[in-house]
Structure formats: structure tokens, C-alpha cells
Specification:
By secondary structure, this protein is α+β, with helices and mostly antiparallel strands. It has helices spanning 3-20, 65-85, 88-111, 118-126, 136-148, 155-165, 170-192, 240-249, 255-269, 282-297, 303-318, 328-350, 356-365, 374-382, 388-406, 410-421, 427-431, and strands at 28-31, 37-38, 201-205, 214-222, 225-233, 276-278.
């Protein structure tokens, strides 16, 4: 098949994805509407809009969900034939378009009311199925924490108290965010061929409620320059681990670097599909998992080096007791296991095997929610994107295992990371560790 034909199919994927956002408001992670873009109006707010990045109303034309389902089903068949006849240099791209057209079709059917099991949903949207979790790991981490954390009382009380000890005082948050952002930016410039002028501007302010972690504003971009601002919420309960997640994962070398590399790839190749990242797709689940693994790579996959960074940059600037940094490796393991705890709750609620009360009790039992706060956390989880903890936490572990299966050399992992960001990645190929970018 000619490149022009694949470009036409890719353009329809982009057009229908934009149309679907009329019915699926959280779906659009990133969209490059032109090779070079500058904000031409001031229609944004630092207070109430969630991601005021784009004015794309003209692109959201009058396709209904039924239209999208019907056309995407037809194009899935066309792309299936393309995959069978593609020459080697086209194969990965044809596979990618076919897989993402299937994500679009399934998500549209879900919006029309089609019911799926949790595993069917995550397989269809992210090419990931999280296996049954060993619940003994929840008990084991509680025992470790009970032995290691300071203070008296139950282990749940010790966890709550320790979380409080890791809290960033609001008056110190800006300095902590600025210094952490600078370190991660410098690493990105060194390891990812990112130019020095794309570091996001950071601000802190009180947003409308504590559940809004940050608001982002895109002012413009060109080939190797993003003009981006991120406003961090002073009302959010910031802790050391949350700073690591929302700086390294959400900005550089995580999501913002991913978006920049896809922009460059779109310009270099003219592939329309590189202009967009849909929330409900395997390109996003890869992006989430890879961004989290990049935090570890930033410190040469060394727990000791990461702990040194947290102590010198976050603890000191936050005014937190430096001796507590020694517990951060254990605390990070607990945070990772907590993600799997929330995954289990979301799976069992989705499949109607647990009630909301059972889910809340489970979260409180393992201190994933403070005593009495389990019902509130369950309610907030129901408002998250479907399959959130599979596409984030399980994906992180799949991507981590994939990188280590390819190479243990950290510099080579960075090289692979950059190539993957620019590639037609296959999440199934990452799961079975067979995929290699061209």
C-alpha cells in the first residue's frame, strides 16, 4: 500500500478521534493541529478550565457516535488487509493504525452503552490485561511498614502519620517544584536530545478544589520548543512522592517530552497519526508506563541516587526532616503496591463483584485511604478514566520489564526510550518483549 493511502486512513483516524471528543471529554491527551502554532487569543483561565490547550471546535464536526462506529469498523477491515500485504517498512505503521482504529471503535461502542468485563475493556483500549494480584503482598508491605515507620499505634495510623511527615508546606511548594523541574529538565536535555528552551514555566496557586492537582496552558510550539505553563494547586495534599510523580512523570522527561517527540516525528514524516494522543489507546498506556519508568532512568535505575535527589532537592527545600529520606525506598514500594490496591478496587467495582462499601473497606484496611475516607476515594475513583490503574501502574511494570529485557545499560535504555517515543509502538509487543522500533 502506498504511503498516501496510509496517510488517508490515518487522517480519518485523527478526524474521528477529534469528533469523538464531543462525547468523550477526557479523551484528548495531545493534539498537534499544525506544524507550528501560537495562541492567538486569550480564551483561557488559570482557575477553572482543566486543560485549556486547544480551540478545535471546527474539527469536531457533526459525526455521531454511530457514524464513528460504522466508519471505523469499515476501516478496520481495510487496515486488516493492509497488514497482510504491507512490506516490512510499512508493517509497524499498518499494525499501529489498525490497533488504534480498534481502540476508537471499542471506546465509541462503550459510549453508546456496550457492556464489557474489566479485562475485556482494558485489553480493547490499552492492549493490557492485569493478571490476578497476589493479595499477600498487601499484607507483607503492611508488616514491613509497621516495623519500619516511626511512632506508635496501628500500622494504618503510622502510615497516615508518616504521610503527614512527608507533606510539603504550602509556603515551600514553589521552591520545591521549581528546583525539581530544573533537575528533571536538565536530565531530559542531556539524555533525550531536548533543547534547553522547552522547560515548562511553573506557578503555584489555590485552584477551585483540592482534587485539581494542576492546570496547564499551552501558549505555542514549534519543532523543538514548547511554550507551556503548569499551575500547581496549593490546596492539593503534596508529599515528596507526589512531587516525583507530577514533575518527572507529568512533565519532563515524561509526558511533555513524549508530546514534543511526537510533534517532531509528525513534522519529519508527515504521518497524521503522530499529531494526536488519545487517552483510551495503547499509545497512551505506553506513554504512561514509559513516563513512570523514566523517573527511575533519571537516576540510573539506582534507588540510592533517587533517594539522594529526594533528600537534597525535595526534603531540604521543603524543610522536612532529612533522616526520613532513609525510608523513601520502602515508601515508594508501598506507593506502587497502593496503585495495585486501587486497581483491584476498580476491577471489582466494574465487574460488580464488590459493592462500594466493600471497596471502601479494602482501601481503609490497607491504608490506601485514611480511616473514614474510603467512600470518598471510591467515589473519586469512579470519576477517573476507565482502566486508569491498568494504563498507569500495570503499564509501568510492563514497560520497566521490557526495558530491562532489551538492555541493562542505562544509556542504551535512554536511546531506546527516545526511539519508542517516535515509533509506531506495539503494546502487545512490549508485553511479550518482542517489539523493536525501526
Amino acid at each position: 500500500m502506498s504511503e498516501a493511502a496510509l496517510n488517508a486512513l490515518a487522517s480519518r483516524l485523527v478526524d474521528m478521534t477529534l469528533s469523538k471528543t464531543r462525547y468523550d471529554l477526557w479523551d484528548l491527551q495531545w493534539y498537534t493541529e499544525s506544524p507550528f502554532w501560537r495562541r492567538t487569543n486569550m480564551r483561557y483561565s488559570r482557575e477553572y478550565k482543566t486543560i485549556p490547550d486547544y480551540e478545535i471546535a471546527d474539527a469536531k464536526h457533526g459525526m455521531t457516535l454511530e457514524n464513528i462506529v460504522n466508519e471505523s469498523a469499515l476501516l478496520i477491515g481495510t487496515l486488516d488487509q493492509c497488514r497482510k500485504t504491507a512490506d516490512p517498512k510499512e508493517q509497524q505503521r499498518a499494525d499501529y493504525l489498525w490497533e488504534h482504529m480498534k481502540h476508537l471503535n471499542l471506546r465509541s461502542r462503550m459510549l453508546l452503552g456496550e457492556k464489557l468485563s474489566f479485562d475485556q475493556m482494558t485489553d480493547g483500549l490499552y492492549c493490557l490485561v492485569a493478571p490476578a494480584y497476589d493479595y499477600s503482598r498487601f499484607d507483607a508491605i503492611l508488616e514491613e511498614l509497621n516495623q519500619a515507620l516511626p511512632g506508635a499505634g496501628t500500622v494504618q495510623q503510622k502510615i497516615r502519620n508518616f504521610r503527614g511527615l512527608l507533606a510539603i508546606p504550602p509556603q515551600n511548594l514553589l521552591k520545591v517544584i521549581e528546583t525539581s523541574t530544573q533537575v528533571f529538565h536538565d536530565i531530559s536535555v542531556k539524555k533525550m536530545h531536548v533543547t534547553g528552551n522547552s522547560m515548562p514555566r511553573v506557578r503555584v496557586k489555590e485552584l477551585p478544589n483540592k482534587d485539581m492537582v494542576f492546570l496547564s496552558i499551552l501558549f505555542g510550539y514549534d519543532y523543538n520548543h514548547l511554550e507551556y505553563e503548569r499551575n500547581f494547586n496549593l490546596l492539593y495534599p503534596w508529599t515528596v512522592d507526589k512531587v516525583m510523580e507530577y514533575v518527572g512523570h507529568e512533565m519532563e522527561p515524561g509526558h511533555l517530552t513524549y508530546f514534543e517527540k511526537r510533534l517532531q516525528t509528525m513534522i519529519d514524516t508527515c504521518w497524521p497519526e503522530m499529531s494526536i494522543v488519545s487517552q483510551f489507546s495503547s499509545s497512551n498506556s505506553f506513554g504512561e508506563g514509559a513516563a513512570r519508568h523514566a523517573i527511575s532512568m533519571s537516576f540510573d535505575n539506582s534507588v540510592e541516587k533517587q533517594t539522594d535527589f529526594e533528600r537534597e532537592i525535595i526534603f531540604k527545600n521543603a524543610g522536612i526532616d532529612l533522616t526520613l529520606s532513609e525510608l523513601m525506598p520502602l515508601w515508594h514500594r508501598y506507593c506502587e503496591i497502593a496503585g495495585y490496591g486501587r486497581l483491584e478496587v476498580s476491577r471489582n467495582l466494574w465487574d460488580n463483584t464488590w459493592t462500594e462499601e466493600q471497596g471502601a473497606a479494602f482501601l481503609e484496611q490497607y491504608a490506601f485511604a485514611d480511616a473514614g475516607c474510603g467512600p470518598e476515594l471510591v467515589r473519586s475513583m469512579k470519576n477517573e478514566d476507565d482502566g486508569h490503574y491498568v494504563a498507569h501502574d500495570y503499564s509501568r511494570d510492563i514497560v520497566r520489564a521490557y526495558f530491562h529485557s532489551v538492555t541493562e545499560d542505562v544509556d542504551e535504555q535512554w536511546h531506546l526510550y527516545e526511539k519508542l517515543y517516535c515509533s509506531h509502538m506495539s503494546m502487545r509487543g512490549i508485553v511479550d518483549q518482542t517489539y523493536r522500533p525501526l
